UniProtKB/TrEMBL annotation:
InterPro entries associated with the record: HK97-gp10_tail (IPR010064)
Protein's UniProt name: HK97-gp10 family putative phage morphogenesis protein
Basic and acidic residues bias spans: 44-53
Region described as Disordered: 19-81
Organism: Ponticoccus litoralis
Tree of life domain: Bacteria
Pfam families referenced in this protein's UniProt entry, alphabetically: HK97-gp10_like (PF04883)
Amino acid sequence: MSVTMKLEGFAELEKELEKISNSAGKGALRRGARKAAQPMADDMASRASRDQGDLADSFAVSTQLSPRQRRAHRKTTQDDKASVELFIGAGPLPQAHLEEFGSIHNAPHPMVRPAWDGGREALLNRLKSELWAEIQKTVRRAEARAAKRARG
């Protein structure tokens, strides 16, 4: 299934990112994306069955994957040193996919797909505003440091 989205305002964000170093830009992107994605992780957790142990508590926004998740992951930014990749979802619990998709013994109890379907537009809007705010703060800090070095 294919989804088409129109993103506006990201070209301006990229222009602002050019004003700062790659490492500062990555930090700003990571902070902004984490803030924007957390409500979706919370929505997923709220949909998780409470009788599945630690499943609801395992939902998070992270840059890390478990070893099994890393093996299955298809990285889309192979050589881009300035890219940031975050993941939203359940931790490496074996019951996560069984709860989402079901099995021959249990009916599915979806958490991730309904949260994505109901919240992707809001996520993209939050992402745009959070990234803008974080990049602006980072640019202001970089400009203040440069001015201080020039004075002193």
